[in-house]
Amino acid sequence: MGTSPPPSGHRNPPDWAPNLPRLGTPLGGSTFLLSGRSGSVHGVGRERTFATTQAAAAALHSRSCRGIVGALPFDLDDPAALWEPADLTVSAQPLAPAAPPQRRSVTVLARLPEPAEHQRRVGEIVARIRAGQAQKVVLARAVQLQVDEAIDPIALAAAFAGGNTANNAFAVALDAAGERYAGQWLVGASPELLVRRRGRSVQCRPYAGTAPRSPDPVVDEQRAAALRSSAKDLAEHSFVVEYLRRSLAPFCTTINAPTEPTLLSTGELWHLATPISATLADPATTALDLALALSPTPALGGTPSAVASEMIAHYEGDRGFYGGAIGWCNSEGDGDWVVTIRCVGLAADLHHLTAWAGGGIIADSDPAAEVAETTAKFATALRALGADPETVAP
Ligand SMILES: C=C(O[C@H]1C=CC=C(C(=O)O)[C@@H]1O)C(=O)O
């Protein structure tokens, strides 16, 4: 994916990155930042808050707003944090950390659930899948963390970016979602592009199928090769690609996806990913319309979607914003939405955090391996926090 043009109709400062908003400015509760390969999109101020996703989509269609930024929850019936910023700026420069992540001591306050319970749940879901109740379910667990020094969400987003523009780093104030989220933030770096729309061109880059990286290059290569030929991971991945093909079909005239996924890596993990490109049938369909139609994919939900969502609610309860999408859409309907993974929820006191990690479960998943996979996924947040990934190991 090359550099994409900035959303039109907004000013384009030559060098935005050095002027990162700092905490304590009046912008805190309405800051949106998404930074990746095509640069950084930064919403400041809040002109209008949308009570529902439908209201936001309608405002874009009626051309009565200049653009929308924010976060979609995992369950689209839950409150979203969507608003029209007073200003939306784009910099060609992606966010870069000022320095390596500051070393922090991170205390684990709770594991929700304990890894042994997560393993038991995975075993139960495998049995339910084998009994024919579903084909794939993505089960997640969370860890609650505490740090001594208050966290600056923008600096943490820069640490999540880690200098790698393939990581879509983000910091999103959640105040627009209502009282329950006052002062809270969502901060992370997602490798997974839910959807990008530029004119009639649509792109998705789903991820599913995972192996941990190794510092030893030979072992690292072996793990990548094993992932590429893992029947279990290829099957897990195929549910997501099939779902996207089906879900894009009503909106698109052409849909192109390679028959085999490619291997992509983050600093901590290898993944199977498929770059999908499509052409919109109706140019009135906005990036937000597409995000609402696609989220959550079986990379976070499962197959069939409704059954998987019921199982997820049963085992995990309310996921809030984890597993949803964060992004922006301008008045032309162009925009980017990334899947809300590899992230933390930061409490209003800026000292308490929740990190989430999930994994796709199919009929031949191994419950102990699924616990290990979630532990490996937590490493992204721990590295950004400047903590030892072993901090959350079972
Ligand atoms: C659910 C997560 O990852 C998804 C994205 C990539 C690979 C995944 C997997 O291999 O299970 C998950 O579908 C997460 O990071 O919490």
TrEMBL record:
Catalytic activity: chorismate = isochorismate
Keyword Manganese appears in the UniProt entry: no
Superkingdom of the source species: Bacteria
Pfam families (UniProt xref): Chorismate_bind
Enzyme class name: isomerase
Swiss-Prot/TrEMBL keywords: Isomerase
EC number: 5.4.4.2
Stretch list, region Disordered: 1-29
Family: Belongs to the isochorismate synthase family.
Protein name: isochorismate synthase
